[in-house]
Amino acid sequence: MTGNPLEHGRFVTDGGLETDLIFHRGVDLPEFAAFPLVDHADGRHLLTGYYDDYAAIARDAGAGLLLETPTWRANPDWGAALGYDAADLDRFNQAAVELLLVFREQHPDLTVLVSGNIGPRGDGYVAGEKADPDEAADYHAAQVRSLTRAGVDAVHALTLTGPEEAVGVVRAARDAGIPVGISFTVETDGRLPDGTPLADAIGQVDAAAPPDWFGVNCAHPTHVTPGLDGGAWQSRISTVRPNASTMTHEELDAMEVLDEGDLGHLASSLGELRADLPALTTIGGCCGTDARHVRALWGV
What we know:
single chain, alpha/beta, TIM Barrel, 8-stranded parallel beta barrel, 13% strand, zinc, Homocysteine S-methyltransferase family protein
């Protein structure tokens, strides 16, 4: 299985799952991890209701629906912090895919793609030590295999802070024979948290292990714009999932209440960003966003 599945239409994707669950639905998510919810009926019901909101947006927009599994934290280091071993994580990852495959069957009128959501080994807002691509490939391989065995259409690494880990994820996906997307996060200056310009990060990954698509997530559209230079590399970006807030990652980390941002400003700034991203097909949200934000981004 190869190729970019996002080339074949427009796709709504979801918003900030974890912040929505915590701040709007009163769910306790230790270590910001949503994947344990798939282990019990109440959690699966909660997740299905969350995804239902985005199916309605896709229907109103006349678009397909890209669903990300709730597995952003379902990797070895974060799993261990929660007391889960490799067997537990394999079960959680596969159960998360099964949940969305059932969801797809329940929405036969929509084109639904199921994407296996892979998070960074580290924090996602803070760049740690520079990763070794081969070590990163080994690290992420088990989760990629679990998601692939369960039947995802692609895997998608989100909120990566440096190109080296991205190369590793792509290599792990290629070994598993599954399409793969890479989404970086950026600071207010358009650079990745490790200081790499967005153009350079995409160029480095494309030179070493090109994914099927790139995206940017967990940053307001006004933070992405400074990273653009009009180069041909911008046509590699298929997905944008912005934060609601214009605050920096450091400021957001210090917040004890949710900054839901300015809905009008978010929509207008995303509209301006669209003009610079000719291959953009897939739009959703990230931290601080919910179905209201994504509906506004789609103008429905």
